[in-house]
Amino acid sequence: RSVYYKFTINEPGYIESVIEHEYDSASFTCKLYDEPRDDKGHICFSVSERESIISRSDKIGLDVGTYYLLISSQYGNGDLQFDLTVNFTPANDWERERNDNVVTANALKIGKTMYGTIGYYKRDYFKFEIPSDGMYKLSMTHDYSDRSYGIDAEIETYDGTEEKRVDIMFCYNDYGQTSQTFSLSAGTYYLRLYGSLCSADYTVRIDKVKSSSGEALTKGQTVVLHISTGPETVTVPTFTGMAIANAIHDAQDLGL
Questions:
Q1: Which of 45, 82, 60 is nearest to 256 (CA)?
Q2: Closest by CA position to 203, among listed 142, 127, 145, 147
Q3: What span, in angstroms and rounded, lies between the C-alpha atoms of 79 and 121?
Q4: Which residues pair with 88 in a beta bridge?
């Protein structure tokens, strides 16, 4: 029993989907695709399993385009009622799926903060240009609450065939760092972020390290990191849908 919903985004940003139902043993699965019946697999998914419990997806950064939500259930033989809400937030500084390899890496500009969500054992890739040899500072934050969870941030090069590690920073609650300074030569680099057992929002930024006089700093000196605030949230209305046995419906417009 499944049903597709279609929506179009006219500017970059991120979505959050919410499913709510009132069944004591039903399980609803929500999967996001960038093409219907996509053989590449879904972008992400969330599950609502318990009675009257709201299932909220991760924040999912998306570019301009058309997307599809597939809602399915494994409960009995009948049709089920559920409430589905999709919230969209415009944002030019949020990572955008799919960005799970060097080919689809998002651009990360020096001196600009990017926001994102790292999923369960997922990878996010960023591509950045180092304009001149020198010391550069990688800074990160995340909202993992468990002390043993965090993000591995690996700086790489890519020659068209092979990814090669340049250096790595471990951004965890009980060990590792929230910033680290690297000596980098001019060129193109990739930043691979790898998450833990659950999802978390994060920020990432790379800065050229300078002294107050404007001269390049040597390793071990620091600068103050300033992080800008995110955009306000725009919410679209809640509507009620129905799961239909063994059917894939014509896409229904969510009105985003």
A1: 60
A2: 142
A3: 33
A4: 15, 234
DSSP 250: P
The predicted-structure confidence for 128-151, as pLDDT tens digits, reads as follows 999 999 999 999 998 877 777 889
Q: Which residue has the tokens 């709201």?
A: 54
pTM of the model: 0.79
Residue 211 tokens read as 């002294």
CB-based contact 70:243 (threshold 8 Å): no
Secondary structure (H, E, C), 177-226: CCEEEEEECCEEEEEEEECCCCCEEEEEEEEECECCCCCECCCCCCCCCC
Determine contact, residues 119/178, Cβ cutoff 8 Å: no
| Residues in CB range of 31: below 8 A, 6 or more apart | 42, 44, 45, 69, 70, 72
Summarize pLDDT for 115-124 with one digit per residue, the tens: 999 987 789 9
- Return contacts of 221-225, CB within 8 angstroms, 24+ apart: 221/181, 222/137, 222/179, 222/181, 223/137, 225/137, 225/139, 225/179
Q: Determine contact, residues 2/64, Cβ cutoff 8 Å.
A: no
CA distance 242 to 245: 10
Percent of the chain exceeding pLDDT 90 equals 46
